[in-house]
Amino acid sequence: MLQLIVGQLLNGIIVGTLYGIIALGVTLTFGITGIVNFALGAFMAIGAYLCWYLTDEIGVSYPLAVILAVLGTALFGLVADQSLFRFTRNNLINGLIVSIGLISVIQSVLLILWTTTPKNMHYILPGVFNLGWFIVPRMKGTVFLVLLAVILSTYAALTRTWAGRAAYAYAQAPEAAMLMGVRTQLLQTGVVVYSTALAGLGGALYASLYSLEVSMGSSYILKGVEAAILAGIGTVMGSLVGGILLGVTEAVGSLYFPQAYRDAYGLIFLILILLLRPAGLFGAKR
Amino acid sequence: MRAELLWLPLFALPLVLHNEVALTILVFTFILGMLAVSFNLIFGYTGQLSMFHAAAFGIGAYATELSMTNLGVSFWTGAVIAVFIVSVISLCVGTVCFRFRLKEFYFAIVTLACSEIVRLIILNWSGFTNGSLGINLTDTPTLWLPGRGVVPIVGTRMWYYLALVALIIMVSVCTRVVHSWMGRNFAAIRLNDELADTLGINVFRYKLVSFLIGNAGAAVAGAFYAFYLSYIEPNYLSIEQSLAIIAMVLLGGRQPVAGPILGAFVLTALPHVIEFSAELRVLTYGLILIFTILLMPNGIMGVVRRQRHVF
Questions:
Q1: Is the pLDDT of residue A284 over 60?
Q2: Can you tell me the distance from the alpha carbon of A14 to that of A70, in angstroms, rounded to the nearest whole number?
Q3: How much is the pLDDT for B2?
Q4: Cβ contact (<8 Å) for A101 and B113?
Q5: Chain-centre distance of CA A149, in angstroms?
Q6: Which residues, numbered 80 to 99 in chain B, qualify as contacts with chain A under a Cβ-Cβ cut-off of 8 Å?
Q7: Of the four, A12, B6, B125, B308, which is 20 to 30 A from A124 by CA?
Q8: Chain B positions in Cβ-Cβ contact with residue A104 (cut-off 8 Å)
Q9: Angle of the B239-252 helix axis to the B20-40 helix axis, nearest 10
Q10: For A11-69, what is each residue's pLDDT tens digit?
Q11: What is the 3-state secondary structure (H, E, C) of A49-103?
């Protein structure tokens, strides 16, 4: 039994980092542009499909395919930002609707290109890591480590570099930041593109673990938004912790309660957090 | 000219228009229009971005059908039971949300979570709701007509008039509400709920009232929609459905009360008018959504109103 719980715990943590990477994108975009980009799930699907197409159909090696998929997704992100999101800055509802429209567009284009058949990528890293008395599939472990590294280095970049501190400054006081010479247009575009790149990375790594469907992103964006709010929107490390908490709640919850309601455990947890600590677990008290 | 007169051409339309597809689109427009108009009471007039509307719509549909099959009541009694059930659930959800003073984004997220939980319950309660397969409705609702007695509601024309009358009733109820003292309290809450509170308006009560009336309207729309389509499935409660309702309202325009009907029309009609495959239909839907929001931030009615000011 203990082994089962630990196994589920690990599974929850790994899925949780996937939620966390989307949550990070949600948090960054919301903090800097004032909109919630619901299309991040669709960008995740773009990344996943690109990665699958490059490795299985063209025959590029997997690490290179991941990099190319991230770059490709970021390029789509740039196009979307310049043609759409640029016009909805700081308008939550319009941004929401535009991103919803974008989901429809991306999903239908993916369907036209690659049909509804689920895509399964061949195994990249077979075998397991043997960690004492429990085992982790090697690929899952690698995905976890890569995502963890990306989230940690994003945190480092935001706190240590000029651009990162400019982003923090802008989130706190846009006008003051502007007066101090922060190039806000560039910053906003950069953040939107970076968040789509993160989603693309999540998707590319997801492709090596699970089978791909066009609508795969829709549950992840929800979990991402949940995780971001759980932790308190605007905290970078919080999105990682929020994602992991959510993943673990679901995984362990479905051990003790019916599996069919898996998605509900995270939601109930979220509702309780929002009611009892509206600023999120790690957010400043309101 | 009184605005009510604008409805008259719609009554005459089936006499001249014999195209079944066009009439079907209009029936959908009327039923989804009811949904959008009732949502607009919560969103457009009280300023609360509720994501619970699809849930109210879906619960309305399920409750009507399930009370008909399990209790053996008629369609109309079933719809009344559905409105009652939806009101009770909305009362619980609304009380929790508004007691804890959830606002804007947080309100949207909590109502979204509640809506998803309801969807999961319907999806997994297979013995009662038939799970993800949905239910094919076999009963035909009946209606008492003067001179003709009790007749089953069949055929596009009959549904057309029924939906149109229901829509008109809903629009007039909403108009009444919006122009009453209650509506003024809603507007005060939308503009600044802290100020409304200091002015002595019971913010909690009026938010709840608006939430209840809106969701009850959605339940009625759900009952009609289910029986017109003869099919219900858990996707009635999906997030996509909630978002489609928001899109209808924004597309049509939040003011006047009937504005969202235009949005419902555009979003149901346009993808059908152009003969497309399913994928391209989703694509057009997305593009319509994006470009109307970017080009007409106040919706179609916003453009119409601006034109009126110019001339």
A1: no
A2: 20
A3: 59
A4: no
A5: 14
A6: 96
A7: A12
A8: 282-283, 285-286, 289
A9: 90
A10: 888 889 999 999 999 988 888 888 888 899 999 999 999 999 999 888 888 899 999 99
A11: HHHHHHHHHHCCCHHHHHHHHHHHHHHHHHHHHHHCHHHHCCCHHHHHHHHHHHH
**Predicted local confidence at residue B266, as pLDDT:** 85
pLDDT level of residue B275 (50, 70, 90 thresholds) = low
Q: Given the DSSP bridges, would you call strands B135-136 and B231-232 parallel, antiparallel or unpaired? A: antiparallel
The shortest C-alpha distance from A249 to chain B (Å) reads 15
Looking at residue A228, what DSSP letter applies? H
Mean pLDDT throughout B100-124? 86
A108, B282: Cβ pair inside 8 Å? yes
Domain map of chain B by residue range? 24-237
Using the Cβ of B114 and the Cβ atoms of chain A, whether some distance falls under 8 Å is answered with yes
pLDDT at A169: 84
* Cβ <8 Å between A108 and B49: no
Distance from CA of B293 to the nearest CA of A (A): 7
Average pLDDT, chain B: 85
Do B278 and A106 form a contact (C-beta atoms < 8 A)? Answer: no
Distances from the Cα of A51 to the Cα of A24, A58, A109, B183, angstroms? 21, 10, 16, 53
Q: Give the pLDDT band of residue A266 (cuts 50, 70, 90).
A: confident
Is B3 within 8 Å of chain A by CB?
no
As a whole number of angstroms, the distance between CA A278 and CA B86 comes to 27
Distance from CA of A246 to the nearest CA of B (A): 14
pLDDT (tens digit per residue) in B49-106: 888 999 999 999 999 999 988 888 888 999 999 999 999 999 999 998 888 887 777 8
Annotate chain B with DSSP letters as a single string.
Answer: --GGGGGHHHHHHHHH---HHHHHHHHHHHHHHHHHHHHHIIIIIT----S-HHHHHHHHHHHHHHHHHHH---HHHHHHHHHHHHHHHHHHHHHHHHHTT--HHHHHHHHHHHHHHHHHHHHH-HHHH-GGG-EE-----EEEETTTEEEE--SHHHHHHHHHHHHHHHHHHHHHHHHSHHHHHHHHHHH-HHHHHHTT--HHHHHHHHHHHHHHHHHHHHHHHHHHHTEE-GGGGSHHHHHHHHHHHHHH-SSSTTHHHHHHHHHHHHHHHS---HHHHHHHHHHHHHHHHHH-TTHHHHHHHHHHHH-
pLDDT band of B170, cuts 50, 70, 90: very high
